[in-house]
């Protein structure tokens, strides 16, 4: 099983509530870049779990233009200050349903870092840039392995020509 953990794209600084902060143009561009980079590696997710906050749902909407999600669910356990151990247990339970599958999580800092740490106890919680994606894999005979963490700054040179508002990324 592979669990892909993604932080939402850049969001507006202010809104009527934290839950209603939308993606900025840069946030949409970051997500577009990451989707184009990830799609050849993972064309389909067996399950997608998304925080109910607007910026996370908009991030999934952007990704879904490039990658199919067979089952998509809003998940309160992925809100910014949720308990990472509870969320990790939920991810592992879903993993039992799809032991050879791919699971995507779209959430927020700090929980995305704490999820990696909870799934891979030998790893300190990494800091995710906006639209950053980590992969944690599980083999049949091994525990969780923190494979990588990538962000738009790494993939930009390869995909920027395909995004709409390129000027937003500098």
From TrEMBL:
Pfam families: His_Phos_1. Signal peptide: none annotated. NCBIfam families: sixA. CDD domains: HP_PGM_like (cd07067). This is Phosphohistidine phosphatase SixA.
């Amino acid at each position: 099983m592979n669990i892909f953990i993604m932080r939402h794209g850049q969001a507006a600084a202010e809104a009527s509530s934290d839950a209603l902060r939308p993606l900025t143009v840069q946030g949409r561009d970051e997500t577009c870049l990451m989707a184009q980079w990830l799609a050849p590696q993972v064309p389909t997710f067996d399950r997608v779990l998304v925080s109910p906050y607007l910026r996370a749902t908009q991030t999934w909407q952007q990704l879904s233009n490039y990658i199919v999600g067979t089952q998509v669910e809003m998940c309160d356990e992925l809100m910014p200050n949720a308990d990472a151990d509870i969320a990790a247990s939920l991810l592992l339970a879903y993993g039992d349903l799809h032991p050879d599958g791919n699971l995507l999580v779209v959430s927020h800092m700090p929980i995305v870092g704490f999820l990696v740490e909870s799934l891979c106890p030998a790893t300190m919680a990494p800091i995710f840039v906006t639209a950053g994606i980590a992969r944690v894999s599980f083999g049949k005979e091994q525990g969780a392995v923190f494979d990588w963490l990538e962000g738009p700054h790494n993939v930009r040179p390869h995909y920027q020509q395909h995004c709409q508002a390129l000027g937003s990324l500098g």
